[in-house]
Design brief:
Length: 394
């Protein structure tokens, strides 16, 4: 745990130093440093119960922040519809490629669904640091990322959890009703007393707003676990509900609550997830044979083909070729869901450990490479506040 804390402190200054020459996302350093201290390289750190528990909370917080940052009012209509069209194209391409590569239909489905993922939680801090979050380009990427996170989780629940699709749909519908009730309360409830209490405790040890966020997050994660639905769906939904709740009132309150959540998420829990991902990465399974190692660049390219190409083709009307390339590169960035989906395949004996390691390796490389290339293509320029996108009309 001590090494994890030290890496979390060391990664930002490293990213800042390297960032003077190249826009490398912070998560790159967290993952790479985790690999370096892990059992397959230096052997200084191993996954223990405490780190893995915090890592799971970090993963949940990553998806919570993704849901919290999405402004559905801005994305409603065109952006989400185009993103959904792009994801459906990704399913056709991804599953088709999976069936060609995998030894069985079940393994092909697992590979195919993994190729349709986009890690919005991972590219979110990159967009924010680059000043691209509240721009038309940022809206397009957020829509693609939201669908690329939400839809694969639904597909996992329906087709990969071991139950018949009809039975899985029943449990998924039950959770949808719970989520709808939470959203309805956030939209239509009388929240004056809640907001008053949040304001009154904002600068005290009470911290009601933060406690409410943690409670809602844990309740919805608990609901998904009880229903056999992936916990990431609960975390994402909690973020959506909390955004509606805290972004519908006083802007000052919104800013203060958001700052506290970002401090907990990006300052503590989320870095633990990425560092633990590096520590736990199975390099031995990857390097057992040249054939397995060769799958990593193959899957990296397939992520761009299956996820990036459809996003390029379904980018908003009026997008320039450069903006389409940026959207495609961000869309092809995936890791947490690839880890979750391939783990299901390995646990059931459907997917080989070596194939899973190659896919996770490709996912890690996508996090390392594609956001970096997206920033370079978009013309992001270094400023005293971070990275700023070059001016360009939409």
């Amino acid at each position: 745990m001590l090494l994890v804390a030290l890496i979390a402190v060391l990664a930002p200054p490293l990213a800042d130093a390297v960032g003077r020459w190249a826009p490398v996302p912070l998560v790159v350093f967290e993952i790479l440093l985790g690999i370096l201290v892990g059992p397959d390289v230096a052997g200084w750190a191993r996954q223990d119960d405490l780190v893995q528990a915090l890592s799971q909370f970090g993963l949940a917080m990553l998806f919570f922040m993704a849901g919290y940052e999405i402004d559905f009012a801005r994305l409603r209509g065109g952006p989400l519809a185009r993103a959904a069209q792009g994801w459906l194209m990704s399913v056709v391409i991804g599953v088709g490629l999976g069936l060609l590569l995998a030894p069985s239909a079940k393994a092909g489905a697992i590979v195919g669904i993994a190729l349709t993922t986009t890690t919005l939680g991972t590219i979110l801090p990159v967009l924010r640091d680059a000043g691209q979050l509240d721009t038309p380009l940022g809206d397009a990427v957020m829509a693609v990322g939201a669908v690329g996170e939400f839809a694969p989780i639904i597909a996992m629940t329906l087709f990969l959890d071991g139950r018949r699709p009809g039975q899985a749909m029943v449990y998924l519908t039950a959770f949808a009703l719970i989520a709808a009730a939470g959203i309805a309360v956030a939209l239509r409830g009388n929240l004056a007393a809640l907001n008053r209490l949040a304001d009154a405790t904002m600068a005290t040890s009470g911290q009601f707003a933060v406690r409410l966020v943690i409670a809602v997050l844990l309740v919805l994660i608990g609901a998904t676990v009880a229903l056999g639905v992936d916990m990431l769906l609960g975390a994402f939904t909690a973020g959506v509900i909390m955004r509606i709740l805290f972004h519908s009132g006083n802007p000052e309150r919104t800013g203060r609550v958001t700052a506290k959540l970002e401090a907990i998420g990006f300052g503590f829990l989320i870095p633990v997830f990425f560092i633990d991902t590096g520590i736990g990465y199975d390099l031995d399974a990857l390097t057992d044979s040249w054939a397995t190692l060769g799958l990593v660049p193959l899957f990296l390219v397939l992520l761009l083909v299956a996820r990036g190409l459809p996003s390029f083709l379904t980018a908003p009307e009026g997008s320039t070729a450069r903006q389409r390339r940026v959207i495609a590169l961000y869309a092809a960035t995936g890791l947490p869901l690839i880890v979750a989906i391939t783990a299901i395949g390995v646990d059931r004996g459907t997917l080989k450990t070596s194939t899973a390691a190659a896919m996770v390796g490709a996912g890690m490389l996508s996090v390392l490479i594609y956001p970096f290339l997206a920033l370079k293509v978009s013309g992001a320029a270094r400023t005293s506040q971070g990275w700023e996108e070059a001016a360009e009309s939409w």
